């Protein structure tokens, strides 16, 4: 029994070492990505238009959450969010031409990274939330439909027995 306990403790120590090494490697490996992420947001001059854009996305998220029971509205909202993502390239081109009228520096590069992060990213996140909600609603509807079908079959079989 002592041998079993010793082997178990040795195994647990090995597992703890492996988990510790893995977490240390993940921290070291993800540190440059974290530094770039933080650097990106420190490099931005948070003018009122950017704060307004973030507020706009928060309002859209709240609308998506509040209207989660209204599937028709959600589908229109979903399509509008995806249309916003689709039009991001055109929006980036227009904003790149007119950035002096509202911003202190030109954030709108030809590849559209800035707009992808601050415009398309939140819209895609909201679209994913709407899509998951729609799938959950669809599953619930399928369950209700199957229950109704089983009740109908049970009534029909009772009618035949009488």
Automatic annotation (TrEMBL):
Q: What are the record keywords, sorted? A: Coiled coil, DNA-binding, Membrane, Nucleus, Transmembrane, Transmembrane helix
Give an example GO cellular component term for this record: nuclear membrane
One example GO MF annotation: DNA binding
Q: Where are the transmembrane segments?
A: 49-67, 76-96, 116-143
Show the InterPro entries listed in the entry.
TMEM18
Give the membrane topology, semicolon-separated if more than one. Multi-pass membrane protein
Q: What family does this chain come from, according to its entry?
A: Belongs to the TMEM18 family.
Indicate what this protein is called per its UniProt record. Answer: Transmembrane protein 18
Name the species this protein comes from: Aristolochia fimbriata (White veined hardy Dutchman's pipe vine)
């Amino acid at each position: 029994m002592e041998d079993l306990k010793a082997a178990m403790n040795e195994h647990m120590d090995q597992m703890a070492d492996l988990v510790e090494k893995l977490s240390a490697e993940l921290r070291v490996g993800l540190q440059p990505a974290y530094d770039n992420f933080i650097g990106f947001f420190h490099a931005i001059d948070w003018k009122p238009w950017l704060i307004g854009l973030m507020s706009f996305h928060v309002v859209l998220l709240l609308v998506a959450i509040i209207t989660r029971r209204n599937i028709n509205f959600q589908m229109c909202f979903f399509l509008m969010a995806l249309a916003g993502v689709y039009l991001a390239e055109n929006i980036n081109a227009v904003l790149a031409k007119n950035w002096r009228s509202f911003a202190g520096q030109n954030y709108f590069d030809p590849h559209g990274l800035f707009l992808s992060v601050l415009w398309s990213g939140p819209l895609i996140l909201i679209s994913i939330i709407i899509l998951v909600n729609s799938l959950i609603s669809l599953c619930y509807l399928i369950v209700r439909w199957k229950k109704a079908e089983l009740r109908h079959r049970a009534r029909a079989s009772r009618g035949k027995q009488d």
